[in-house]
Design brief:
Elements (H helix, E strand, L loop, with lengths): L6 H24 L6 H14 L3 E2 L17 E5 L2 E3 L13 E10 L2 E10 L5 H19 L7 H12 L5 E2 L5 E3 L6 E5 L16 E4 L2 E3 L5 E3 L6 E3 L5 E3 L2 E4 L6 E2 L4
Antiparallel strand pairs: 1-4, 2-4, 3-12, 4-5, 6-10, 7-8, 7-9, 9-14, 10-13, 11-12, 14-15
């Protein structure tokens, strides 16, 4: 069921979204060769608690998972697309790392992700990240009352296709607000005019997942991490967006 948010809920989401944007921005600035993904996770947890929020992913058990997610932030490196679990793993020069973070603030949820290079990255990686980030903004531009989820997916797919990158089909954007995952389902591909109609008051998370090579994925044995089947790198960007009667409002933008 699609949930239209009340004015009070939207105000809380605006406040929480700004907090989440600032927290993730601070975590991004800590990314450097030699740091572990565990250290980044602990830092994100401390910042969220200091801001008066709760980590949305910690102890969250999605449908089909055999155990709750054990960390604050999903950290996925290189060929890992999403849902990587923090560990003593050390980030190296040239890695690309996806940082996906959810916030529960006053009972309302926002979701935000960025993929960044570790130290100096090669041109191939920088291009992948640039295209994936631009795809997010192109998708957001279609998040308007009167449009459909298919308009968002079609715009993202049409932009990425000429680059010959793989667009992950098994995972997608989603509604967000009263829970970390709500309807509607928002694929990063599709037909214009198809899917759920967007109306003012909806809050959605748009999140292109773009692979350097094949679109095919592997679900790893840890029950959470999703990786590219060919071992090539992936990039993931996400914002929480409010549908309005005018331009879309990006709630997690700093």
């Amino acid at each position: 069921m699609i949930i239209i948010k009340t004015k009070k809920e939207i105000e809380i989401l605006r406040e929480g979204g700004k907090i989440l944007g600032k927290v993730l921005d601070s975590v991004v600035k800590k990314v450097k060769p030699g740091i572990t993904t565990d250290e980044l996770d602990r830092y994100a947890y401390e910042l969220i608690k200091k801001a008066g929020g709760k980590p949305a992913f910690l102890d969250y058990q999605p449908d089909g998972a055999s155990y709750p997610y054990p960390a604050t932030i999903c950290i996925s490196v290189n060929d890992e697309i999403v849902h990587g679990i923090p560990s003593p793993r050390i980030l190296k020069e040239g890695d690309v790392v996806s940082l996906d973070l959810g916030l529960n603030y006053k009972g309302m949820f926002t979701d935000h992700a960025r993929t960044v290079g570790v130290g100096k990255t090669n041109l191939k990686s920088r291009k992948l990240l640039s295209v994936a980030e631009e795809a997010l903004h192109i998708g957001i531009d279609q998040a308007r009352a009167g449009n459909t989820t298919g308009d968002i997916g079609h715009a993202i797919e049409s932009f990425i296709k000429p680059y010959k990158y793989g667009i992950v089909r098994e995972l997608a954007g989603h509604g967000v607000g009263r829970a970390i995952h709500e309807d509607p389902y928002i694929p990063n591909f599709g037909k214009a005019g198809h899917g759920e109609k967007l109306v003012a008051g909806m809050v959605i998370a748009i999140e292109p997942m773009v692979n350097e090579g094949t679109a095919s994925v592997v679900f790893e044995d840890d029950g959470y991490t999703v990786s590219t089947k060919d071992g090539k790198k992936s990039a993931h960007f996400e914002h929480t967006v409010l549908i309005t009667d005018g331009d879309p409002e990006v709630l997690t933008e700093v």
